[in-house]
């Protein structure tokens, strides 16, 4: 059997000898053509051996592991990243631009919070559902966007589209102040505080008492969901949860994003987006916070030190980061939760992915791809439509809603 171990030095040496020989001979009458063909063959070999790989599936229990293998074939399939942009940063940067945005018409609802603030919830009712025509029992999927995201993000729109095809209803939870609504109180949001999420889940349950409810969160939305499940244990109506590109250890995430290249590509931009949100609601926030000091922050860490941790009453920013890190709460999760991360995600570095914590809880499963970046997971020659992440979402959502009875008592 031929070994699949790839030695780049050997390949480079052999390729150089091959090209030198072919250029002299003039394959097809053209040394340039020989060079192109040789490079293409080498690139294809490298891609198939070192880039396209099956994901690693880890679970704390055999029952959940087998359920995923049986009901979600995507977890066992080789993930073929788009061959011309498989590098993590390129995937992360390109996804918002290359993926199409499905047309979705939302019905907006503003929910009043206990402190007097308001939460914007965008509904996709899917009243044309053929598989679930009864609105009272139509399954509902709650979607949580990332740090500065809204219901209009491409990854959210794709999940709404996948839910539409399944016949399900969607509700998108927009964090306070991000989707155009007025900020009524001097409070926004953070990954550690789940009060608004709890209010939204309770509201959805009251509104659709007979409809099964599951949830999906992306990046910070996934962190918030994981923190919520860790706090609530069995006291939740959610049938299942899937999270994508979550940051499990905030200290590791911020340290990674503060490396020079990643600070330039991502950190500064996200910081400016957070500051734009503060500036948009300055008239409400300036009565409680030093906005000028906040606007001088250069990184997410500095923003959190000057704004987020103070807003939510933490003694220090380190206290906030510890509380916001879902890795500390995974042992308390009592609802089936599938987590998809890419090993090359600079937002959530590989060494901080909670492999050992997942192994200790039969309600958890972790799917790790070698490539995919942060909310990337592009695949296909021209990745305009669904991504690997979208396929994971669709198959898991369908499995939880339609075969969820098989997930009862995963500890057995």
From TrEMBL:
| PANTHER family assigned | ABHYDROLASE DOMAIN-CONTAINING PROTEIN, PHOSPHOLIPASE ABHD3
UniProt lists the family membership as follows:
Belongs to the AB hydrolase superfamily. AB hydrolase 4 family.
Q: Provide the topology term for how it sits in the membrane.
A: Single-pass type II membrane protein
Q: Where in the cell is it found?
A: Membrane
- What keywords does the record list, in alphabetical order? Hydrolase, Lipid metabolism, Membrane, Phospholipid metabolism, Serine esterase, Signal-anchor, Transmembrane, Transmembrane helix
Provenance organism: Salmo salar
Give the EC number(s) listed in the UniProt record.
Answer: 3.1.1.32, 3.1.1.4
The protein, known as: Phospholipase ABHD3
Pfam families from the entry? Answer: Abhydrolase_1 (PF00561)
Q: Which gene encodes it?
A: LOC106600430
Q: What does this protein do?
A: Phospholipase that may play a role in phospholipids remodeling. May selectively cleave myristate (C14)-containing phosphatidylcholines through its predominant phospholipase 1 activity, cleaving preferentially acyl groups in sn1 position. In parallel, may have a minor phospholipase 2 activity acting on acyl groups in position sn2. In addition to (C14)-containing phosphatidylcholines, may also act on other medium-chain-containing and oxidatively truncated phospholipids.
Domain AB hydrolase-1 residue range list = 139-246
Q: Where do the TM regions start and end?
A: 25-48
Q: Which reaction does it catalyse?
A: 1-O-hexadecyl-2-nonadioyl-sn-glycero-3-phosphocholine + H2O = nonanedioate + 1-O-hexadecyl-sn-glycero-3-phosphocholine + H(+); a 1,2-diacyl-sn-glycero-3-phosphocholine + H2O = a 1-acyl-sn-glycero-3-phosphocholine + a fatty acid + H(+); 1-tetradecanoyl-2-(4Z,7Z,10Z,13Z,16Z,19Z-docosahexaenoyl)-sn-glycero-3-phosphocholine + H2O = 2-(4Z,7Z,10Z,13Z,16Z,19Z-docosahexaenoyl)-sn-glycero-3-phosphocholine + tetradecanoate + H(+); a 1,2-diacyl-sn-glycero-3-phosphocholine + H2O = a 2-acyl-sn-glycero-3-phosphocholine + a fatty acid + H(+)
Q: Which SUPFAM superfamilies match?
A: alpha/beta-Hydrolases
A Gene Ontology annotation in the biological process aspect, one of them, is: medium-chain fatty acid biosynthetic process
Question: Which GO MF terms are attached to this record?
Answer: acetylesterase activity; monoacylglycerol lipase activity; phospholipase A1 activity; phospholipase A2 activity
Principal EC category:
hydrolase
